[in-house]
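Sorry, can you check?
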Amino acid sequence: MAATEQQHEQALKRFLDARPELREELDHLNPLLAQAKGETAAQYREERLHEAFEAEAERQQLFAWELTLQLTAATPLDYEAQRLEVHREVAEMAGMDWPEYCELNGIKP
């Protein structure tokens, strides 16, 4: 079960709530930068938020969807179960044997 859009939005909110300095930065972006990209200020802000979220996931050596699950799971055990379920789905879609997939991706089932 991959993270839903609702889960991702909740994760972004929690991510931003835990980082007041990022919220401050995003609240004071230069509107001319958005205009130069042909975006609204809100679109430009949202893009910067997603970039920060993805950078944090990368810093933690996670996929962005894993960070989403981490921030929205009820418990660490729930997170791990959801994470493994998604990885199993990916392995199936790729037609890979589960142990081979785990080894390739450094997963301890």
The helical segments are 5-17, 20-27, 31-36, 41-59, 64-72, 76-94, 98-105.
